[in-house]
Protein: Sugar ABC transporter permease
Amino acid sequence: MTERSKKPARVRRLGPGPLVGLLFLLPAAVLLGVWVVYPIVYSVVRSLFDAPGTGFVGLSNYGTLLGDDTTLYTIIHNLWWVVLAPVVVTVLGLVFAVLTERIRWATAFKLIVFMPMAISLMAAGVIFRLVYEQAPDRGVANAVLTTVASPFSSEGYPDARPRESDALTSRDGAIVTTAPAQPGQPVLIPIVGIKQQNMPETARPAAPAAPAQGGGLAGTVWFDFSPGGQGTSGQIDAPERGLPGMTVEAVQDGRVVASATTADDGTFSLQGVNGPAEVRLPKENFSAAYSGVNWLGPAPVFAPELGLSIVTLSIVMAFVWVWAGFAMVLIAAGLAAIPRDALEAARIDGASEWQVFKKITVPLLSPVLVVVFVTMIINTLKVFDLVYIIAPPSVQPQANVIALEMWRVSFAEGDQGLGSALAIFLLLLVLPFMIMNIRRFRREAS
Structure:
């Protein structure tokens, strides 16, 4: 046998060679370089220059970033996002995924919960800007709250005040008679300063009150105003209307001895009052009706130094609305992969549903839960659209996040150097979580 015949036969490669694969990858690699690699490299270089980009300043932009109070407040704000949003989204996704296994219309429920993912974050911001409108006739959130609270709250007369006279005065927010009222004599309480929108629809023309039976006090509370300046001050005129729903109290020796509510024509009758008594309209009559929550206000929920305001919680709720469906779908897929025999064995051994969920379902779902949680952390660190659209300009400093601060510094203030430093800082915050997710995907694939 010759030397040539001893050589092993060359193994012929099946399919196209490596060059063909590289050619197919080339367009994606070019796009990746243009849209990802080049912007990152340019941002790193740009962060080393001043605002106009003409002077090299080294790392001074990063020193300014870490020493600026506004930036530190923004970082604290982003930490609240990282603490609240991923936890709420993951928990809600888990609850929804478990519930969909126990309801009949699971597909329809999943479709409804997942539907917000079909719209952009900017559109979601516009939707929730309308939801959080302060006026209940425009904002859905306050419309629901005022509807629920309406049976427990009364319509007030804000800005109302007594007609200037020697007979009435204001004291601690209440309107009281300056001299004790005598039984058998009518008590006239003229009120002014009521806006047309605060006048109840049930108000009827004011009328003199009938004498109280048994020696009590009777009188009229009315809106002492006639269009065109007609009528006499302090007297009931034909076009003037009574003020229904007013609480009227008779006070003797600092103690309330009788109480009544005015009728539609403003009349009231205080029974069982013996002797002179001070007549009082409590301050609760003049408080504004409950109009809901100022969702987009700057008021802090906790201590102001913690940087958590109600507008931040409102935007977090919008974020949860968008991403809860995404979490539900991923967790539901992981839930479907859990072996049912493990769950049934636990139930046969006497475990309750809560014990099965806590001891078996959650531990078996932990890889999926971690992926969802880490993904939500990445999304919260990059959040921009919702904050920019929902938060009014007056409260954006209280709702600021790193991505919004980067845009504001770069384009509103025109400092591209500091803005690029903020962009690199945000990239460094996101990078560890991205690496964590990639490693987990590789472990699951191997």
Remarks:
- The chain is about 45% helix and 10% strand.
